[in-house]
Amino acid sequence: MYVTRDALAVETPRWMFGDSEFDMLEWHDHLLVQAVVPIATSNPRNTAAPLDIDYRVEE
């Protein structure tokens, strides 16, 4: 989270990409409040029943 906060202090992007390490609801919620779309591959280890999706935030 400190890397994300430091990056947002410099400039506000439209999207922020991360690998499955960034599949955290706290990270997603923080970015959505900042009007940034978080894009991170879903980490199946974060749930007992993985959904058939590639990303948590989808249109």
Can you walk through the features of this model?
The chain has 59 residues and is α+β, with helices and mostly antiparallel strands. The chain has one domain. 31% of the residues lie in helices and 14% in strands. Strands 1-2 form a two-stranded parallel sheet. The longest helix has 9 residues. The chain is elongated.
Descriptive labels:
alpha+beta; two-stranded parallel sheet; 31% helix; elongated
**What percent of the residues sit in helical stretches (DSSP H or I)?**
25-40%
- Structural class determined from secondary elements: alpha+beta
Q: Roughly what is the average pLDDT, rounded to an integer?
A: 79
How are the strands ordered across the major sheet? 1-2
Q: Characterize the biggest β-sheet.
A: 2 strands, parallel
Give the topology string: H per helix, E per strand: HEHE
